[in-house]
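Incident log, support desk, overnight shift.

02:14 A customer reports that sequence design results differ from what the structure should imply. Their input is reproduced verbatim below. On-call engineer (initials T.W.) acknowledged and began investigating.
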């Protein structure tokens, strides 16, 4: 495995460079990135739904639950069409789901920390994490567009950090390969 990686270190660096470019472009234009991600999801859901419908109909004989596959395919097509025609609804639904999840998880963390108080010290960190999750959820509900752009920005930051690490790893592989081939 190491030999394969060292022979292909340039591809690792290229992956890193592409991730860095994606991160920079997303930081510069987070709204466009979010719109493209939504449209890609819509295209995926549409194509996946069509394939599932074809699969259900082609295999309906001898398949007792083909109707479930058909229903799933129709839902996929519907999700794809709605996303393509009204991406703002899909973005709002996603942010709402994330907001609800953050609030529920934050409350669970706070409750768990209060219960842990009798057994450990330092539970205040868990309480703070829970409060931050609840605050994020409330802000996401109040400002869904800002929350959606924040998600795009986190994706951009992840891409930048990941890209820098991949580039560093790629050059480390090159050095390792040269050192071991010389020996």
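02:41 Re-run completed on a clean worker. Output:
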């Amino acid at each position: 495995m190491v030999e394969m990686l060292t022979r292909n270190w340039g591809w690792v660096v290229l992956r890193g460079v592409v991730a860095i470019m994606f991160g920079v472009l997303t930081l510069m234009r987070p709204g466009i990135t979010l719109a493209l991600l939504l449209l890609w999801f819509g295209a995926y859901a549409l194509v996946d739904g069509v394939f599932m419908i074809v699969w259900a109909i082609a295999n309906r004989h001898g398949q007792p639950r083909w109707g479930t596959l058909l229903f799933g395919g129709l839902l996929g097509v519907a999700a794809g069409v709605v996303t393509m025609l009204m991406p703002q609804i899909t973005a709002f639904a996603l942010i709402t789901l994330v907001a609800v999840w953050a609030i529920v998880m934050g409350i669970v963390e706070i409750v768990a920390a209060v219960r842990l108080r009798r057994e450990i010290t330092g539970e205040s960190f868990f309480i703070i994490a829970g409060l931050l999750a609840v605050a994020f959820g409330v802000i996401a509900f109040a400002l869904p567009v800002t929350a959606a752009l924040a998600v795009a920005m986190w994706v951009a930051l992840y891409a930048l950090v990941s890209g820098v690490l991949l580039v560093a790893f790629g050059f480390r592989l090159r050095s390792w390969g040269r050192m071991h081939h010389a020996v």
